[in-house]
Design a protein that fits this description.
mainly alpha, 403 residues, 12 helices, 0% strand, disordered C terminus
Length: 403
């Protein structure tokens, strides 16, 4: 028996034993896995931050004196571009907070002033319509909306469960402290990865050559290259699409003279990072805030955004994101649904490029199998993922004759 077959049978036996042990001690395995993932959370977060900031940093590196041969420029290129990517990200977050937070506070102030009169008007209207039911009229007339009374009841409810409140407060503070600690450690790890990425990539390639066969490295390289291209295209396309959608929303609201145009455009643009459902989430929040000014203007905003969503979904998204990711709309919807159900908002965002990567790899495998079996692909290529049309620089001409 060859050594390769022996290794294969040993691996299958080990895998079978591992499955049996895990199935018999599943609860222990789940708790152990949660502990391991909790310990690795800062590193995972750092990897994600480093990957996203690497896209921004590469853009700055291409424009930071690209033709200069100065040693100072070469040594300072990576730190300066990394600092610029962090600075522009922080500036964008501060700008969004500066636009959104005051407008939301103003809207809640309007709600605080307008809810009691609106409640009184609604109560009088209902009482006037229920003249034939005096008992119901009497019960409704006794209902009063008083902020002071609500605040008093809330304070009594809070003071009645001091122990529960303290435990909840401790839990909230502990969770917030843990989240901030993980974020800080993740940022530190991301900065280290970005500053040392060239050496880390070179060392990982050396280890792969040492530990694995050439065939395995070739397949792994193809998977990593496809995943990198897909995720990179998705993030860039989603960012551009969010800017376009938020800008169009702001311009349209200004033309229609609707209130909270800057806040609504910013919210719609930020939430558009979540595929398919994100813009509707931002639209719902914006419509509720516009409702504090005028119900008719809120209705106009909803109609306007539905039209804008049709324009965005049929024209902007397929051109900006769909063409780069290469995933059909039905699989995009499935990725958002499953990813959101498993991991929330993060699952919605990461589900689309991950599904697109698997989709492209599956098509490559399918084409290889069809080529081995001599099966010609079908004429309908609508579901086939798009491939880049670039040619290699040193590619031989088609008219070159064979020797």
């Amino acid at each position: 028996m060859e050594k390769r077959e022996i290794k294969r049978y040993i691996f299958i036996a080990f895998l079978a034993i591992a499955v049996c042990v895990i199935s018999q001690n599943f609860a222990v395995f789940v708790s152990f896995l949660s502990v391991v993932l909790g310990a690795l959370k800062p590193l995972i977060m750092g990897l994600m931050i480093a990957y996203i900031f690497n896209i921004i940093m590469n853009f700055f590196e291409k424009h930071y004196f690209p033709k200069s041969s100065s040693k100072f420029v070469k040594k300072s290129r990576r730190p300066v571009c990394l600092a610029a990517s962090f600075a522009i990200t922080i500036a964008i977050i501060i700008l969004i907070m500066y636009i959104v937070v005051p407008e939301i506070a103003s809207a809640f102030g309007v709600l605080y002033d307008e809810i009691p009169p609106a409640f009184t008007k609604s109560k009088d209207f209902i009482i006037g319509k229920l003249k034939e039911y005096p008992e119901i009229q009497e019960q409704i007339s006794t209902v009063e909306f008083d902020w002071a009374n609500i605040a008093e009841k809330a304070s009594k409810l809070l003071t009645s469960g001091v122990a529960g409140i303290l435990s909840s407060a401790v839990g909230i503070i502990g969770g917030l402290t843990s989240a901030v600690t993980n974020l800080v450690l993740g940022l530190i790890f991301a900065v280290y990865l970005l500053l040392r990425k060239d050496k880390l990539i070179k060392d990982s390639r050396r280890l792969r050559k040492l530990w694995f066969s050439d065939e395995f490295n070739r397949k792994l390289g193809r998977v990593l290259k496809t995943a990198n291209e897909t995720f990179r295209s998705f993030f860039i396309g989603q960012f551009v699409e969010a800017i376009i959608l938020g800008t169009l929303c702001f311009i349209g609201m200004k033309i229609l003279k609707l209130p909270y145009a800057a806040m609504s455009g910013t919210l719609v643009g930020v939430t558009a990072f979540i595929p398919i459902v994100g813009a509707f989430l931002g639209a719902g929040i914006s419509a509720f805030i516009i409702l504090t000014e005028s119900p008719m203007q809120a209705l106009i905003f909803i109609i306007f955004l539905l039209i804008l969503q049709q324009f965005e979904g049929n024209i902007i998204y397929p051109k900006v994101v769909g063409g780069t990711v290469g995933l059909p709309s039905i699989w995009t919807l499935a990725a958002v649904t499953v990813g959101g159900g498993l991991f929330g908002v993060l699952g919605m965002i990461m589900g689309v490029p991950l599904t697109a990567t698997l989709y492209k790899l599956a098509f490559v495998k399918l084409e290889e199998k069809e080529a081995e079996l001599g099966i010609s692909p079908p004429d309908n290529e609508e579901e086939k993922p798009q491939k880049p049309a670039k040619k290699p620089k040193n590619a031989p001409k088609a008219s070159a004759k064979k020797k």
